[in-house]
């Protein structure tokens, strides 16, 4: 950061972060007047170009970049262009993790120095989401800063007046940055709330929020909802950011951070555009060994994340597996790869010691199995060409592949301290194994025509193992829960209940105390998640209500088939259908996948009336 650059904060409106962006302004080769210092014709000290520094150099760079974006995106408003420039800026030295430095003091620069960061014109062409602002939004902003009628009318050239019965907030201007000002006398109880709306300018996909703070103890930030799903370009979604003062601050205390909406599909699409999903031999691409390995790793990391997210959310895969022929990375330590050669031989035996990439390769393998399962059983083509015998053969083939994958699991690496992630944890591999079993048989669980006891027994066992595995993996450990953990646990619990309601063979095979243990474990884990994450509360409430009714059914039948248990004998204090429908609607707002809907509707149909079950199912999808 140049020492002469204008700095923040915004003293006029502290709730609006300034500056916005930083552009190139130091030692710029620029056109010169061609006139000598004296201006006389006899003065030969004339040049047409000069190296200049100043904000007058940065301004034309940013103006030119805005014009460049407008030429490529003519439908974007000026506010949309500014948003694209701001949200794609970088705050570290290009290509490294070193922070931008302030040349005035040689210390790390802050948001009051560079705003959102240094402009990246190429990235600005594809921001994914933009914060657009309409003229009416600016009128509300003028009202929020208590502008006089004369001032407002002078700007708008109209007789606009602020509504006396409406509350305006500077925090609600749809700006692509956030700035909260706290009074130093505030006793840790103030919360600043920002309302924002983003417009999707990319393809369909689901974004998940990621927040990083320099001092999370000073300010706690929450975003609702934490995921945004878009089905097409131009679609808008809103979210709310709450920034709460966590402790009594000093006079000059400040905390900064970044709020990023991550889309794994965007990374995958960029890999596709670069041809990373294709085998380099097909194109006779000339590149060194190091770049080739980086190319393969970039693609497979993006693909496995996209595949996992798509399957969990019930979305189609961004790239069908049949379109992929890229080679997997070499199973060899990073230190053995140079730009020109590989020193030593890659790992080929599952019994050999794992390398630095062995566990990543194992994750890539299981996502490839998921992608093929999706293509065979859940795509439109597979549904239209279903054949029972062929279906069973394919299921058996995938089951053998899955068992073989589990048998090839690399040994868990030794760690000097308690692990902070589930990656390469043997317990997590087991969860993935059981989750894949549920994914493989899910269609058969909800198919009322051809229901096989063996499938229900296996899925019930897999679901129970997931509940117990989550308990071993997370209880008493410093590993944080994630959205995918909530999804897996809730899906396993629903599957276990569905098997109990649907299959008499499952009911005969289980003991009442074991069923109670599974339900208690799931409820306890969901309750802990709900304490730390408000969005998990409806999952906990709904599961607790459903498991109570299922437990009553199991006890009532006593593992013997009797007429279906009627809810009339339930305690009047238990949640009714309206409560459960409300909780299901809240879950739907957090992007419930298809698997939840089919299992929930089946369970509700088991112990509710047909009309109630139909209304419950409809509520799942009215969002």
TrEMBL record:
Where does the source fall among the domains of life?
Eukaryota
Q: Which InterPro entries match?
A: Peptidase_S8/S53_dom (IPR000209), Peptidase_S8/S53_dom_sf (IPR036852), SBT (IPR045051), Subtilisin-like_FN3 (IPR041469), XnlR_reg_dom (IPR007219)
Which keywords describe this protein according to UniProt? Nucleus
Please list the residue ranges annotated as the Xylanolytic transcriptional activator regulatory domain.
Answer: 260-335
Q: Which Pfam families match?
A: fn3_6 (PF17766), Peptidase_S8 (PF00082)
Please give the start and end residues of each transmembrane region. none
Q: Could you tell me the Gene Ontology terms of the biological process aspect for this record?
A: DNA-templated transcription; proteolysis
Write down the PROSITE patterns for this protein, in alphabetical order: SUBTILASE
Keyword Nucleus: yes or no? yes
| One MF annotation (Gene Ontology) recorded for this entry | DNA binding
What family does this chain come from, according to its entry?
A: Belongs to the peptidase S8 family.
Cited PANTHER family: PROPROTEIN CONVERTASE SUBTILISIN/KEXIN
The protein's name in its UniProt record: Xylanolytic transcriptional activator regulatory domain-containing protein
């Amino acid at each position: 950061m140049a020492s002469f650059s204008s700095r923040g904060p915004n003293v006029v409106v502290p709730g609006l972060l300034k500056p916005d962006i930083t552009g190139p302004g130091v030692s710029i080769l620029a056109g010169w007047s061609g006139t000598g210092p004296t201006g006389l014709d006899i003065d030969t000290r004339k040049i047409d170009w000069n190296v200049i520094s100043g904000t007058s150099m940065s301004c034309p760079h940013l103006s030119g970049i805005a014009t460049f974006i407008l030429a490529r995106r003519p439908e974007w408003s000026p506010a949309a262009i500014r948003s694209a420039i701001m949200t794609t800026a970088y705050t570290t030295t290009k290509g490294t993790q070193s922070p931008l430095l302030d040349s005035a003091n040689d210390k790390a620069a802050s948001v009051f120095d560079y705003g959102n960061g240094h402009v990246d014109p190429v990235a600005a062409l594809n921001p994914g989401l933009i914060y657009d602002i309409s003229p009416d939004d600016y009128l509300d902003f003028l009202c929020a800063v208590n502008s006089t009628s004369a001032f407002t009318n002078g700007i708008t050239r109209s007789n606009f007046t602020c509504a006396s019965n409406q509350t305006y907030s500077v925090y609600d201007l749809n700006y692509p940055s956030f700035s909260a000002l706290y009074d130093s006398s505030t006793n840790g109880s103030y919360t600043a709330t920002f309302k924002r709306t983003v417009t999707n300018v990319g393809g369909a996909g689901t974004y998940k929020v990621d927040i990083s703070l320099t001092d999370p103890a000073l300010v706690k930030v929450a975003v609702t909802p934490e995921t945004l799903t878009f089905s097409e370009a131009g679609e808008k979604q809103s979210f709310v950011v709450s920034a709460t003062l966590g402790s009594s601050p000093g006079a000059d205390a400040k905390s900064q951070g970044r709020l990023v909406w991550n889309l794994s599909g965007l990374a995958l699409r960029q890999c596709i555009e670069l041809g990373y999903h294709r085998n380099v031999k097909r194109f006779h691409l000339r590149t060194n060994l190091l770049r080739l390995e980086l190319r393969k790793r970039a693609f497979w990391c993006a693909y496995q994340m996209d595949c996992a997210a798509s399957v969990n959310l019930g979305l189609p895969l961004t790239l069908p597996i049949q379109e992929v022929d890229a080679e997997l990375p070499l199973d060899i330590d990073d230190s053995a790869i140079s730009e020109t050669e590989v020193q030593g031989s890659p790992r080929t035996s599952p019994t050999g010691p794992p390398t630095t990439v062995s566990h990543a390769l194992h994750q890539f393998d299981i996502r490839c199995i998921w992608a093929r399962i999706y293509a065979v059983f859940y795509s439109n083509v597979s549904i239209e060409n279903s054949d029972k015998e062929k279906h069973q053969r394919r299921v058996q083939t995938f089951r053998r592949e899955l068992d073989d994958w589990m048998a090839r699991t690399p040994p868990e690496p030794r760690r000097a301290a308690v692990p902070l992630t589930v990656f390469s944890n043997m317990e997590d591999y087991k969860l993935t194994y059981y989750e894949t079993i549920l994914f493989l048989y899910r269609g058969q669980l909800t198919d009322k025509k051809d229901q096989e006891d063996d499938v229900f027994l296996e899925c019930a066992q897999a679901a129970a193992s997931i509940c117990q595995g989550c308990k071993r993996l997370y209880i008493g450990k410093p590993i944080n829960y994630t959205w995918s953990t909530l999804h897996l646990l809730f899906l396993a619990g629903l599957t276990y209940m569905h098997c109990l309601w649907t299959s008499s063979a499952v009911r005969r095979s289980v003991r009442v105390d074991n069923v109670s243990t599974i339900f208690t474990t799931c409820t306890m884990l969901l309750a802990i998640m709900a304490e730390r994450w408000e969005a998990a509360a409806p999952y906990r409430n709904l599961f607790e209500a459903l498991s109570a009714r299922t437990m009553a059914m199991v006890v009532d039948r006593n593992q013997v088939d009797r007429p279906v248990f009627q809810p009339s004998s339930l305690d009047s204090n238990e949640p009714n259908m309206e409560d459960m429908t409300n909780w299901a609607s809240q879950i739907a707002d957090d992007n419930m996948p298809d698997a939840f809907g089919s299992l929930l509707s089946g369970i509700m149909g088991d112990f509710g009336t047909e009309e109630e079950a139909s209304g419950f199912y409809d509520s799942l999808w009215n969002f």
